[in-house]
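User: Can you fold this complex?
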Amino acid sequence: MSEIKKFMFVNRKAPHGTIYALESLEVVLITAAFDQDVSLVFLDDGVYQLKKGQQTKGIETKNFSPAYRALEGYDIEKLYVEKESLEARGLSEDDLLVDVTVLGRSEMGELMDQQDVVLSF
Amino acid sequence: MLHIINKSPLTNGSLDSCLRVAQPGDVLLIEDAVYAATTGNAFEGKIREAMGRFKIYVLQPDIDARGFNGRVIEGVIPVDYSGFVELTTTNKNCQSWL
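Assistant: Here's the predicted assembly.
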């Protein structure tokens, strides 16, 4: 096995209007199978992916939001949310369906800087 | 006229442009535009201000899908799919701001 790299997935899109959020989640789960150091970041409308209480029956699409709670089982435990993005949307940590680390914009920038690979969705 | 918006107000300028340009009438928020009608969103002030000139509607199934049931700004009118169709028939025409 080659050396472990630091992978970061940057999620900036709302969950149901486009396919980006679901595609990101699929790639994250694939990456988990390769025993890499994976971090997930939620910025801008990406924070909406983690909103509690999503009920997609009415729009007849798959509700993939429970899958974020399953990430822990794949040893993906580094979830970061930008504080400013939450605030601009009237959200707090209590509105989110998983435990996350809330970072300010400068801490978020530092974390990005430490990565080997950054994938943006 | 019925104006239909489907983009989030914080990452796209469609709703801003619509509210800036459009003559008073009906505005229907669907898909990611429904976030504009949720309490605490940075766009809330603009929606409240626009409510003086427009009737603002929001598609309830899109609110539910996004986990915002119970957090729609007071005065915004929720509609279901048949309400959507009705709006297209009661207005003489409609415009989708993509």
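Chain B has a mean pLDDT of 98. The longest helix of chain B spans residues 81-90.
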